[in-house]
Amino acid sequence: MQIDAVDQRIIALLVADARASYADIGTRVSLSAPAVKRRVDRLRSAGVIRGFTAVVDPAAVGWTTEAFVELFCAGRTTPAQIGAAARRHPEVVGAYTVSGEADALVHLRAADIAHLEEALERLRAESFVTSSRSTIVLSRLVESPGVGPSSA
Fold first, then answer.
1. Which of 22, 65, 143, 145 has the fewest CB atoms inside 10 Å of its own CB, making it the most exposed?
2. Mind spelling out the 3-state secondary structure of 47-59?
């Protein structure tokens, strides 16, 4: 599927505010609301836009403690196994296979250090995990839900 500059702007505007109306987006990209809707429908049917979601402030729900955990896995652990295990833990907000020494990197959020420790213990108890190395986040410096070099 070809994505032109207008599609890219529409995507960026939706990433910034998924509740923006087609008319508001149209004004910003110089298209009519029906033309924006047709483009969004096309982007959705092609799988470029997979859905719309609410972005919740972790502090507002009390999950302010974060860590990145490197997982070291046994033998021939597959990415699918790691992904399935990560989805079993509500504290996991992201899981990635990575290059380097570790097999995977997992991003955790918890209410406090005790909750984080409990989540880490459950994660480390997965049958394929041989060891882990954790880094606790002190502060967030940059965070962007956008795609590409600019999200708006």
1. 143
2. CCCCCCCCCCCHH
Domain 3-44 adopts which CATH fold?
A: Arc Repressor Mutant, subunit A (1.10.10)
The CATH number of the domain covering residues in 56-134: 3.30.70.920
Tokens representing residue 63 in the block = 């999950």
Instruction: Say what the pTM is.
Output: 0.73
Q: How many residues does the chain have?
A: 152
Residue type at position 84 = A
Cα separation, 139 vs 103, in Å, equals: 25
Angle at 63 between CA 58 and CA 66, to 5 degrees: 95
Strands 65-73 and 104-110 come out as antiparallel
Going 68 to 74 to 78 to 82, the CA torsion angle's sign is: negative
User: Between the CA of residue 68 and those of 2, 64, 92, what are the distances in Å?
Assistant: 36, 13, 10
What whole-number distance in Å separates Cα of residue 127 and Cα of residue 100?
A: 22
Q: How far apart are the first and last CA of the chain?
A: 22
What number of other Cβ atoms are within 10 A of residue 55's Cβ? Answer: 8
